[in-house]
Write a structure and sequence with these properties.
37% of the residues lie in helices and 19% in strands. The protein is α/β, with parallel strands linked by helices.
Length: 178
């Protein structure tokens, strides 16, 4: 079959339509896979780099006795696993609301914690939003970049307005934008 494209033309003389179709040559699957893999590694780093950065983060959290954090979904699960639940987390959505928590008791423990920290990848949208939000509260905080992550440690307990997204039902309901 031919997909619409201007790269080359194939004659369809003798076909029922008798017209011309535009066809494009498809790259071999191996080349497409290799290009996609290279792009993924460039964007996310190798597994070794990810493990090293997580290790540095976990060591820093332990050294600072940080046991409760607000973070993004992926960091939450990695930290809970890597620390054998020594540090537990509550997930924040990109809009600083309660995110999808795989284990609700963690969220509850963080919500009750004294001085939870905020930990996110330095290039994550939450890093800028947490910084701006903490600044707006007037609460002093320490910000430290550790490998690929940034740790925000407020001087006193300050929890985000981590309410769940509003439930929208009915005709024309749209998901919340974060």
């Amino acid at each position: 079959t031919c997909a619409p494209s201007a790269s080359r033309r194939a004659s369809t003389a003798g076909s029922a339509s008798g017209g011309t179709k535009t066809c494009s040559a498809r790259p071999p699957a191996a080349a497409t896979t290799a290009a996609a893999s290279a792009a993924l590694v460039a964007a996310t780093g190798t597994y070794t780099e990810r493990a090293e950065n997580l290790g540095v983060l976990v060591d820093t959290l332990a050294a600072r006795d940080i046991r409760h954090i607000y973070t993004d979904y992926w960091t939450c699960n990695l930290v809970a696993f890597a620390t054998e639940e020594g540090t537990v987390c509550a997930v924040l959505s990109d809009g600083m609301r309660t995110g999808v928590n795989r284990y609700e008791p963690y969220r509850e423990r963080v919500a009750r914690a004294d001085r939870p920290a905020y930990v996110v990848p330095a290039n994550h949208v939450l890093a800028g939003r947490i910084r701006a939000w903490l600044h707006s509260t007037g609460v002093p905080y320490r910000s430290t970049t550790v490998g690929w992550y940034v740790i925000f440690e407020p001087a006193r307990t300050v929890h985000p307005d981590a309410r769940p997204h509003p439930v929208r039902v009915g005709v024309g309901a749209t998901p919340p934008r974060d």
